[in-house]
Fold these 2 entries.
Entry 1:
Amino acid sequence: MSATTGTTGTAGTTRSNRPPSVAAIGIARIGYETKGYFRSPDAVFFTFLFPLIMLGIFTAAFSAAGEIQPGPDAEGLSIGAYYLPGMLAAGMLLSGVQNLAVDIATEKGDGTLKRLGGTPLSPVSYFLGKIGQVFVTGVLQAALLLLVAATVFGIALPTAPEAWLTFAWVFVLGVATSALLGIALSALPRSGKSATAVVIPIVLVLQFISGVYLQFSQLPEWMQNLASAFPLKWMAQGMRAAFLPDDFAVLEQHGTWDLGWVAFWLIAWLVVGLVVSRLTFRWIRRDA
């Protein structure tokens, strides 16, 4: 009887002393990273609230110009309704690319990553925590943006299940791609102090050429072609496919929503971000 108890006790001790898995540590870090994010006022303003503020500015400033129409006989949309999908796409880019690129570069510069490198924390768990934080904040940001758009600006949201299904897969792919590209881009700044100066101009230019702040159909063809090489254009196009009437597809570069190409380009950039992140990530800078 005592032998059985001892075996059970030994087994129980072994189980209780078993180190947590990589996934479990990564999931635990999501909460830590999310709390740290909301404790940083500049991050909350420039990545969480910025799309909401810009939607308010566009709606207030340009509503007097009238509705945007895809054709002479088609029903038009208000400025706010037309630009809402672009702001949702911009929110994904800001939460993933800008937030993570600046955050991780800063952690490299102030020695946080060097200290984490001396702990049992694996890069995979660290990545899971960062990506999970982007998903949490991205969902909250999109929900707040949609709530304010519907209640404050009077923008009608889709009612068809197919539209919300399109929104869901574009959102998941877009957030995952943006998060991985943010981790990859964090290797570019040489210090934490230079991170914002390096990252923000890249993000800002992409927003202007990808149909976020300017109507994409009115951009020069060469600029449309340039934007098509980057993921934000496809995120914005996928969001427009979910939120705008089908008549507005004629305003896209090829006169259609091209959802197959949206998925292709987002997956391609996701793979690029994953590979580059794995190849370039270091707990310390190479020149340290």
Entry 2:
Amino acid sequence: MTSVLQAQALGKKYGRRWALRECTIDMPAGHVVGLVGPNGAGKSTLLKLAGGQLEPTAGGITVLGGRPGSTPAQLAKVGFVAQDTPVYAGLTVAEHLRLGERLNPRWDEGMARERIARLGLDPAHRAGKLSGGQRAQLALTLCLAKRPDLLILDEPAAALDPLARHEFLQHLMEAAAEHKLSVVLSSHLVSDLERVCDYLIVLVDSRVQIAGKTDHLLATHHRVTGPRRDPDRLPAGGHVVSARHTDGQSTYVVRTGAPIHDPAWTVSRLSLEDLVLAYMDKRDAERRRVALEVRG
């Protein structure tokens, strides 16, 4: 499997605080990769390191086989859309396109103008007068027209209303398919990832909890519910991801490659959001266990 991004023991420190530490990750090429995790997991820092906007404090990272931001050619391979969809408020749409042409050696003027026309954006309008959805689409157009091999999006639709977010993601899917792009999309909205991503990485405390094709992950994780009992009473061969107990009932999320045919348990499928929450809940449960041990 060809990798588009690899990091080994990667870390970034701001003063005395580590924003990312001991992160080892491998993102495959040719996929729309969803990167998800709680606040403070290090997602934005990782993506900025990948885009060459930050230098690592520790460890190493390669993107498309090179060091991020090391040369103009390397910069040209990567498109980056941040959460605030940065555009210049005082410049018109047309001026943004002219700026993009000057800064990017692989600039596709025809594609940029065609996309702006299809979106219904007036080239004479200043970016500061555009709606949030239009600014996001302009930022995406600037990234796509530079003809990158990798497109990195850090919460690009977080501030958009549902309709604008739907349109942005629809255009993203179309562009990824048409231009055969590798994409990394970070989002807190798992429903967005479920719509567009075919590969998922859950990052918690700088560490990968799980990674794989979304259809495979959903096929190998199950919710099992039954009378309250210890996990050793579960069918053999499964790995318990998370557990919830009430007075008379136990509910587990289990990872297993084999079907569960035990009449003592009710087995149901998980949504992608269920899966993500299970791995985040695993982190919180471990923290609670450690805190109890310390107090004890």
